[in-house]
């Protein structure tokens, strides 16, 4: 700062053409730089789940003719906005990973409104598969026990495998929806292919996400006062991890090939300025300290 030192003294500077850091260090750099935005995004995510929380309160704390009706109504409202909420979060998280400047509220609103229909469609697919797995978890073991035939566990295993594949696809569905103009069928097809091409990243994301959720569950079970942390953690941080891990895969196999084939300028590519076209060269971090020279008194001409 100019108040505490001379502006003539060279500082370390930032070289805009320096190579990117390795993913591990870049992850923590982006996380720390955007920590406040992630907290704010988690707050928005929590507020948009108010119908779900209210439905639980109504169901547990009231007992009248309207209890069931109000609970179902609130759950329907939550169902309708769930997909759009994830789309809004996905748009914001993508910009964070790309290290772009943006207004969080404005970008979330755009993602929410522009992808409401698509978000509802994709979330409906998730809900159907999730309901099937939960039903299978209750039905298939009972069938195996009653019939004494272990073959009943085969469709149970298939349903779990389908749910796992869909989970991996979800790491790509919303980012593709918010970053491209692909149709829904093409998005599902690309998400399936990308999940197959990045099984290592999918498994790592799943394990780390489960660890974050485990920490949250442990704290809540330890003391109910930790429930307030849900407003700040872990939804946005899990989303950031998934976007950081999987958006580079989308860039590599979907976005970059499109712009290379079309010949259009890729807005997500790193700018490369040729040396001869630069007006000046930023030599941040490479300049030498200025040596102060003692002034010599000269003759005064009167």
Give the key terms.
globular; disordered N terminus; mainly alpha; 302 residues; 10 helices; single chain
Question: What does the model show?
Answer:
This protein is an all-alpha fold and 302 residues long. It has one domain. Helix content is 67%, strand content 0%. It is built from 10 helices and no strands. The longest helix has 32 residues, at 116-147. Residues 1-13 and 298-302 have low confidence and may be disordered.
* Uncertain parts: 1-13, 298-302
Helical content (DSSP H or I, runs of 4+): 55-70%
Query: Structurally, how many domains make up the residues?
Result: 1
Order of helices and strands: HHHHHHHHHH
Find the structural class using helix and strand composition.
mainly alpha
What count of helical segments does DSSP give? Answer: 10
Number of strands: 0
The separation of the N and C termini measures 41 Å
Q: Report the major sheet.
A: none
Beta-strand percentage range: under 5%
- Please tell me what the overall shape is: globular
The chain-level mean pLDDT equals: 86
Radius of gyration: 26 Å
Please write out the topology:
Layout: H1 23-33, H2 35-47, H3 50-61, H4 67-97, H5 104-114, H6 116-147, H7 153-179, H8 184-197, H9 199-222, H10 235-262
Helix pairs in contact: 2-10, 3-4, 4-5, 4-6, 4-7, 4-10, 6-7, 7-8, 7-10, 9-10
Quick summary:
With 302 residues, the protein is mainly alpha-helical. It contains 10 helices and no strands.
């Amino acid at each position: 700062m100019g108040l505490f030192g001379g502006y003539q003294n060279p500082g370390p500077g930032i070289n805009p053409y320096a190579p990117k850091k390795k993913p591990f260090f870049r992850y923590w750099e982006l996380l720390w730089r955007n920590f406040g935005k992630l907290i704010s995004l988690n707050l928005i995510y929590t507020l948009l789940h108010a119908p779900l929380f209210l439905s639980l309160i109504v169901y547990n704390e009231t007992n009248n003719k309207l209890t069931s009706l109000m609970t179902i109504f609130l759950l329907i409202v939550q169902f309708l906005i769930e997909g759009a909420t994830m789309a809004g979060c996905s748009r914001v998280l993508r910009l964070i990973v790309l290290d772009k400047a943006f207004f969080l509220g404005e970008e979330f609103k755009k993602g929410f409104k522009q992808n409401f229909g698509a978000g509802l469609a994709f979330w409906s697919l998730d809900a159907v598969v999730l309901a099937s797995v939960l039903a299978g978890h209750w039905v298939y073991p009972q069938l195996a026990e009653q019939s004494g035939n272990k073959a009943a566990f085969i469709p149970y295993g298939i349903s779990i495998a389908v749910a796992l594949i869909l989970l991996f696809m979800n790491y790509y569905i919303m980012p593709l929806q918010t970053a491209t103009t692909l149709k829904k069928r093409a998005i599902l097809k690309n998400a399936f292919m990308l999940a197959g091409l990045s099984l290592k990243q999918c498994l790592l994301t799943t394990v780390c996400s489960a660890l974050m959720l485990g920490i949250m569950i442990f704290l809540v079970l330890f003391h109910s006062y930790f429930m307030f942390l849900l407003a700040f953690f872990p939804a946005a941080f899990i989303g950031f991890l998934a976007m950081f891990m999987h958006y580079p895969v989308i860039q590599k196999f979907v976005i970059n090939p499109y712009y290379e084939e079309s010949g259009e300028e890729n807005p997500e590519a790193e700018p490369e300025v040729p040396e001869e076209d630069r007006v000046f060269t930023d030599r941040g971090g490479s300049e030498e300290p200025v040596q102060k020279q003692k002034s010599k008194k000269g003759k005064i001409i009167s």
